[in-house]
Amino acid sequence: MSDRFAALRQRDFRVLWLGGVFSFMGVQMQFFLRGILAWDLTEREGALGLVFFVFGIALLVATPLGGVATDRLPKRGVMLVSQTVLVASAVGMGVAVLTGVVEYWMLLVASVAQGTAFGFFGPARIAMATNLVGRANLGNAISLQSLAMNGSRILAPSVAGALAGWALFGIGGAYITAASTSAVSLGLTMILPNPAAALTGRARPFADIAAGVAYVRSVPAIRNVVLATFAVLMFAFSYVSFIPALVKDVFGLGNEAVGVFTSLSSVGALVAGIWVAGLADSPRARGVMTGAGIMFGITVALFGIAPFYVAAVIISGFAGAATTTYQTLSNTLALQHANSEFQGRVQSIMQLGFAGFGMAALPLGLLAEAIGLRSTLVVMGSVATAAVVLYAVAEARREAPSPATEPIIVDPALTGR
Question: Closest Cα to residue 247, out of 364, 366, 377, 152?
Fold first, then answer.
C-alpha cells in the first residue's frame, strides 16, 4: 500500500473511513433530494436559497457548540447523537412524501435538523481521525475522508435521481434509502474507540467558544486560511444550491440531467482527492491550495457564461476537482497549526464556512431572481477568486522577513578595511 493510503493501515481509521462512505452517501442523497423537492414545490430560486439559508443558520449556531462538545466530550458519543438526527430527518421527509402530506415548510424543518447535526458531527469526525492516526498522517487522513465523500458524490446524485424518477420509489423512497445508508454508518460508529476528552475542567461553553475564537485570531496562519475559506464557501461553493435551477430553468432539462451534472463534478473531485492524498502533508500543500481556490472561483464564474449544458458539465468536473483540493488542504493547514486542546474548536470555526454558504444562498437566490442566475454566478466566482488572491498576498507578507531583523551589510570600503 502506498503512502497515499497510509492512514488506512490503522484498523480503527478504516472503520471510521468506511462509516464515512455510508454517511456521505446518505447525506449527499438528501442534499440532492432537498434541492429537487424544493424546486418542484415552488419553482423559485429564492425558495431554493431559503432551504439552504435555514440550514446555514442552524449550522452557524450549532457548530461552535459542536467544537466545544468535541473538545470536552467523548467524540464517539457526539458522532452517534448527530448521526441519529440525520437518520431521523431523512425518515421523516420520506414518510411525508410517501403519504402525500409533504409541504415546503417541512423541508425547512429538516434543513434545520440536518444543519444542527452537522454542527456537531463535522468537528467530532475530524478530531476522531486526529486521535486515530496522529498528527503526522493528519493530512492523509483528511484527504482520504474527502475521497470517501467525493466517491459518494459520484453515486449519490445518480442513485437519488434514478430512484426519484422511478415510480416504484419516487422521492419518498429515495429519502428512505438515504436514511438506510446513514443507519449503516451509525452502526459502524458504535464499534469505534471512545477517546477521552482533550479539554478538562469546569464546562463553560460560551467561554470555551470565545477562547477558541481568540486562539484562531492569535495565530495568523490559521486566521488567514479561515477568512479565505469563509469567502470561498460563502460565494463559490454556493453554486451547488442553484444546480437544479441552472439545469432545469436555464438549460430546460430534468432531474436525471441534474444528477449527471452533480456526478461529473464528483468525478473531478474523486480524481483530485486521490492526487491530494499524496501531498497533503508536504510543504507544497499551501501553494496547491491557493491555486485550487483561484481555479474554483474561475470555474463558478464560467458557469454563468456556459453556452450549453455539455459545456457546463465539463466545467463542473474542474469545479469538483478544485473545491476538493482547496477544502482538503485548507482543513489540513488549519489543524496542523492548532494545539491539541483546540482541535475541535478550530475545526468548528473552519466548518462555519458551510454555515456561511447556507446563509449566503438566500440573498444570492434573491439576487438571481433580480439580475438572472447567469450574472449571479459570475459575481459569485469573481468574489471567491479575489478572496484567494488576497489570502496569497497576506501570506506572502506574513512570511516576508521583517526589515528590523534583516542583517545589515556594511561596505568594507566605508570602514577603510
Answer: 377
| pLDDT for position 281 | 65
Rounded Cα distance between 297 and 238, Å, is 11
Q: Which residue has the cell 497515499?
A: 4
Phi, psi at residue 134, to the nearest 5°?
A: 85, 170
Domain range for 248: 3-192+217-399
Q: How far apart are CA 78 and CA 69, in angstroms?
A: 7
Distance CA 196, CA 156 (A): 34
Q: How far apart are CA 82 and CA 78, in angstroms?
A: 6
Asked whether residue 339 is domain-assigned, the answer is: yes
From the number of C-beta atoms within 10 Å of its C-beta (0-12, 13-18, 19+), residue 284 rates as exposed
Whole-angstrom CA distances from 408 to 233, 314, 403, 404, 412 are 44, 54, 10, 9, 12
Residue 206 falls inside a structural domain? no
Rounded CA-CA distance 248/244 in Å is 6
User: What pLDDT is attached to residue 200?
Assistant: 63
User: Which one-letter DSSP state was computed for residue 74?
Assistant: -
Residue 417 within any structural domain of the chain: no
Please report how many Cα atoms fall inside a 13 Å half-sphere around the Cα of residue 8, on the Cβ side. Answer: 15
The mean pLDDT value of the chain amounts to 82
Domain assignment of residue 416, yes or no = no
Instruction: Tell me the per-residue pLDDT of 70-102, one tens digit each, with 9 for 90 and over.
Output: 888 888 999 999 999 999 999 999 999 889 898
In terms of Cα–Cα distance, which of 383, 355, 354, 351 is closest to 367?
A: 383
Rg (CA), the chain: 22
**With contact defined as beta carbons under 8 Å apart, do 51 and 108 qualify?**
yes
Domain count, the chain: 1
We report the CATH number of the domain holding residue 284 as 1.20.1250.20
Query: 400 — phi, psi (to 5°)?
Result: -65, 140
